[in-house]
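Q: How do we represent a protein-ligand complex in a form that can be generated token by token?
A: Start from the inputs.
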Amino acid sequence: MSQTDGFFTLEMHDERDALVILDQTLLPCEVKYIELKTAEDVWWAIKKLQVRGAPAIGVSAGYGAYLAAKHFETDDLSIFRAKFKEIRDYLSTSRPTAVNLFWALDRMGRAAERDVGSVAELKKVLLDEAQAINDEDISMCKAMAENGLSLLKPNMGLITHCNAGKLAAVKYGTALAPMYLGHERGYNFKVFSDETRPLLQGARLTAWELHQSGIDVTVLCDGMSSLVMKNGWVDACLVGCDRVAANGDAANKIGTSNLAIVAKSFGIPFYVIGPTSTIDMNCPTGADIRIELRDETEISEMWYAKRMAPEGVKAYNPAFDVTDNKYITAIVTDKGVVYPPFDVNLKKLFG
Ligand code: MRU
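Then emit the structure tokens for the protein with MRU bound:
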């Protein structure tokens, strides 16, 4: 599988002391890369969604923790480790829902406990660990592309929500990865992308990256899915996830659950695609997933020349919802496709 669109989501440049990211808040109008040099830079970039999508958030946090640690001025390993824990705790407050953030920071924390002789050696261990998280993300997305494509047939109509593509991971993406692989193999998919209010990741990001790759993509307003399904234009739904609970309930961008309920009523398969790093076996059900609440102005003002909701009217802006496992046909992971009963089969997946 190749990725040759001429853009990248994130790249570590250790020689420049910088994590370079594509600022996704400016897409699709402007392709601009920015350098993140400190843990604060990375925290803000995650918070503001300049870098976003569960896998990309995890990888960025790993590099952010390393970048901070690289400049710790101490030769004392226990002082170094204590400062590193502070940085990890700080980065973990950037966004609450995507478990990849915590998963990556935990991995960095375990790496920091390795038995080494000096701070210099430990810094190298941390860079290697962040790089390993980055590289594993790429291989997991490749595996999800194959596993997801095994469920699809040529000429299918597909619908997706938010952005679970190249921009949400280091490369290839999760829910969009089977589309890219199918495209390479001549599957000729027709993709519908929900615009995804309020931050329009579907219109701004998914449509942008699929279009760049030459995939047939049509943007829909979020409330149009039942119409296109009724028209017979959709054969399968493919969405990403930010955290999958042990019972298969899946948190993803707000509106995903609506799509799943509509798909079920039309008998259309609903596939949640995510790497094993997004499955949180310590989280029993969707009710235990913390949902990020974002600023009301993202709904009332952000995209408009003039505000679109009256002054003084409240707006409710949860960034994610949880799709009940009963609406999910299968969860596609890097280790294979998991079918219901999810509580039993996810446990088997993790051995
Ligand atoms: O708020 P965002 O843009 O980070 O939300 C992203 C999503 O909901 C994605 O669908 C999810 O992270 C899966 S990404 C491969």
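The pocket of MRU is lined by residues 49, 52-55, 98, 162, 164, 168-169, 173-174, 201, 240-242, 252-253, 319 (CB under 6 Å). The mean pLDDT is 97.
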